[in-house]
Amino acid sequence: MDSALPPLPGAHTIPHATAVLLAGGIGARAGLGMPKQFAELRGRTILEHSLAALHDHAGISGVLVVMAPGYTDAARVVTDGYPRVLDVIEGGRERSDSTVRALSWLSTAAIAGDVLIHDAARPLVSAAIIDRCLGALKASAAVGVAVPSSDTVFRTNAAGRVVDVPPRSSLWRAQTPQGFRLATLRAAYDAALADPDFVATDDCSVVQRYLPDVPVMVVLGEERNLKVTGPLDLEIAERLLTSP
């Protein structure tokens, strides 16, 4: 993990929300020989599709792009022409490291208020999803986007034996963006960074684990808001972009 966050200065409150676009992964499973964020879907990179969705939304005041190490210059080429891009910075080794670096940048820039964290690998995020996430932040300090699970889920032990079958009605598949009061997310990561056993794959889980008194609310996502992980996902995303 990266080093602890600097203290938050007295920051002004922004009118809507700042977006953090996490594009720090190298996308090895996509088998492209380059970060999957630079793969093209209908003439635009995955990175640009995701960036445009955030940048062009009226409720987003600025977008901070967190890019895979060694690819910040290439990302700046993509972000050229998007005036509400605040900066392109280098991400960390793990996804949570990239969030920590984003929080540090926002602290240095004296930005407070609400923040949306979105994975660049979800290029089909809609304005309606962003609307729901921003709307929920009016009453909640932490918000996750998710869709109900249509599959039965097994929980197994190390030997592969099923030990539990949770009721499907209580299971949701997490998506992004995830929204937070910036001070809430900072407090959760401050606590997480003090834990030598800290591991996380998303930011809602950090709040849920380290700030258990802060409820994480869920708003409805969309099946179209898929995460591009492998070649098949690229094909599906390409087809979805051609459909209304």
From TrEMBL:
GO molecular function: 2-C-methyl-D-erythritol 4-phosphate cytidylyltransferase activity
Site positions per UniProt: Positions MEP for the nucleophilic attack: 168, 227
E.C. number(s) listed in UniProt: 2.7.7.60
Listed Pfam families: IspD
Biological pathway: Isoprenoid biosynthesis; isopentenyl diphosphate biosynthesis via DXP pathway; isopentenyl diphosphate from 1-deoxy-D-xylulose 5-phosphate: step 2/6
UniProt key word Protein biosynthesis: no
Record-given protein name: 2-C-methyl-D-erythritol 4-phosphate cytidylyltransferase
Gene name of this polypeptide: ispD
